[in-house]
Amino acid sequence: MKSKILISALLLSYVCSAQADPLSAWNDSASKQAIEQWVQNATNQDRSTFIPPDKRYVVFDNDGTLWPEAPLTFQLRFAVDEIKRLAPEHPEWKNDPVVSAVLKDDFRTVAQSGEKGLMQLLELTHSNITTDEFAQRVSNWVDSHQDQRFGCRYDQMGYQPMRQLLDYLRDNGFKTWIISGGGIDFMRVLAQKMYGIPPEQVVGSFSLSEFSLTDNGTQLRKTMKGAFNDDAAAKPVAIHLFMGQRPVAAFGNSDGDLAMLQYTAANPDFRTFGLLVHHTDAEREYAYDSHPPASGKLIEGLKMAQEKGWTVVDMKQDWKTVFDPALCK
Fold first, then answer.
1. In the CATH scheme, what is the homologous superfamily, with its name and number, of domain 24-71+155-318?
2. Is the previous residue joined to 71 through a cis bond, with omega within 30 degrees of 0?
3. Domain residue limits, the chain
4. Which parts of the chain sit beneath pLDDT 70?
5. Cα radius of gyration (the chain)
6. What tens digit of pLDDT does each residue of 4-28 get?
7. What is the per-residue pLDDT across 87-105, written as a single tens digit (0 to 9) for each?
8. What DSSP element (H or E) covers 218?
9. Rounded CA separation 64/86 (Å)
10. How many CB atoms lie within 10 A of CB 4?
11. Contact between 101 and 109 (Cβ < 8 Å)
12. Angle 30-44-246 (CA atoms, 0-180°, nearest 5)?
């Protein structure tokens, strides 16, 4: 009887411990330990590494760091689906080689069109509409589309370990921001629900909107004027513009995030933390670094992480789950 009671007690203790682990989707690896150790050091007032709560700003890339960017980024997938939805209303588009390639799912031709082709798709699907109408289109797309490989909606595909990490940091007094090359208006529709990050803490690529009075009040209409691409060296610029102070931790996954990690690491006042997500799991997600399917090249970042002591997360080895199994197969 005593042995049964002891076994039951041990099982209960194990279950409670698992439930209490805020990073339960992470394996107990060096990456998880590095995160926990840094947070403990930063939040313990008795240590020289203590960071005051009003300075605990941390920044996250989005594509490839919080949700997948392969085989296409979600925003490009949205643009493709919008082109297909709107094409019957615009017969003049059929003569455009980039649009024609989209309609044929010929993404090699789309890729070969480069930045010019991408900007063309964005102009057709992201401009000359009000900001409210654009947000509604994104919401409608999320409600009506799902990822074919994983069988779940795009707003259910936030990486479970990273979502736990966001919660863990906030529970310890950190303010979480998104600093991403993705479109600011696109991400703001999804970030609160997916990550618990409010719109004012989402910073991304943008172009200027135009204000006007209407019979019903006012409106902002999206344009392609004054485009700002929030990637690479532009990320520290955006951090300064929108946040007004240097972060104490930065999380990314590609060489496009290097400037953000370097800017954070150079914080003269605090011991900072840097982390790169390395996509190594072809079975549960995708595996790439030097040759990504669309974006997210990671070459220099791996070298610099070793030099700077940044944490590199091996997705295959460090994560118990990639997506929430209750949502995605």
1. HAD superfamily/HAD-like (3.40.50.1000)
2. yes
3. 24-71+155-318, 74-147
4. 1-19, 329
5. 22
6. 544 444 445 444 444 699 999 999 9
7. 999 999 989 999 999 999 9
8. strand 217-222
9. 28
10. 8
11. yes
12. 80
- Tokens 């926990």 identify what position? 36
Q: What pTM was estimated for this model as a whole?
A: 0.93
Tokens describing residue 21: 């682990």
Asked if residues 276 and 301 have their Cβ atoms less than 8 Å apart, the reply is: yes
Of 62, 63, 84, 59, residue with least CA distance to 72: 63
Give the whole-angstrom CA distance, residue 224 versus residue 14: 55
**Residue for token digits 């010019």?**
116
Could you tell me which of 60, 73, 261, 47 has the C-alpha nearest to residue 167?
60
Calculate the alpha carbon distances from 139 to 48, 90, 196 in Å.
46, 22, 17
Q: Which residues pair with 17 in a beta bridge?
A: none
CA separation for the pair 320, 313 (Å, rounded): 12
d(CA 225, CA 228): 9
Report the distance separating Cα 307 and Cα 205, nearest Å: 30
Q: Where are the alpha helices (DSSP H) in the chain?
A: 2-20, 30-43, 74-86, 97-103, 107-112, 114-126, 131-144, 160-171, 184-195, 234-242, 258-265, 300-308, 315-318
